[in-house]
Amino acid sequence: MSFFDKIFGGKEENLQQKSFWKKIESEEDLEKAIENSYHQKIGIFKHSTSCFISKTVLKNFEKEIENTDEKVELYYLDLLSHRPISNKIAEDLGIRHESPQFIVIENGKAISNASHQDISLSQIV
């Protein structure tokens, strides 16, 4: 990995996924997540693996999660690998696409969404 890839993130980056994330990699995964929102609030983190800002926001958000006792259901979407799913989220939930973005869903509807430094665990707890 080159110096610039370390700073800005390379396309071959292998993010070490934290155990609390449930990946969304298909429309079926998205449907299950939305279905789960009828039982409890869920959060979807839309992340661009090639963006330094997105990477920084993700790391800060993960630190926030690791330092809480709250039990929340969190989903992770790699925007570069699954852009059609990201577009579907924006269309189905009626929210503008941003990256990074954290969307809180309850009863099948987006009740909160934030981007960049406005992303916080307090949106869902």
TrEMBL record:
This is General stress protein. It comes from Chryseobacterium glaciei. InterPro entries: BrxC, Thioredoxin-like_sf. Coiled coil: none annotated. Pfam families: BrxC.
